[in-house]
Amino acid sequence: MQGSLPPEAQEKLEELQNLQETAQNVSEQKQSSETALNEAKTALDTLEDVDADSTMYREVGELLIETDYEAAQEDLEEKVESLEVRVEQLTKQESRVQEKFENLQEELQQMLQGGAGGAGPMGPGGA
Questions:
Q1: What is the DSSP letter of 111?
Q2: Structural domains of the chain, count
Q3: What is residue 64's three-state secondary structure?
Q4: In a 10 Å sphere around its CB, with 0-12 CB exposed, 13-18 middle and 19+ buried, how is residue 112 labelled?
Q5: Is the per-residue pLDDT at 122 higher than 80?
């Protein structure tokens, strides 16, 4: 079926498939970052209820290292800020990829309809 497409249409179709894969990757990264952000915010909220003199530990790889309240709070606040920026960047990237995908999809649809020789519309053509 794809072999009968004009080369330009085939190229657009491949580009669409690549964009779809990119959109999926960005979406997965965003979801992962949002999950990490929610966990960091929850930890920061929980930290507010902890006595500042309590013994605390920080996970470093497979180890738990003793830390103090201020260091734990600073680390969590930095993590939250960093993840908020990351989620914002991924949201913008997701929008750009989606817009590019929709434009390319429209171009391909017009290309294929134009190639039909004007024998009638192939469908309502997404408005």
A1: H
A2: 1
A3: strand
A4: middle
A5: no
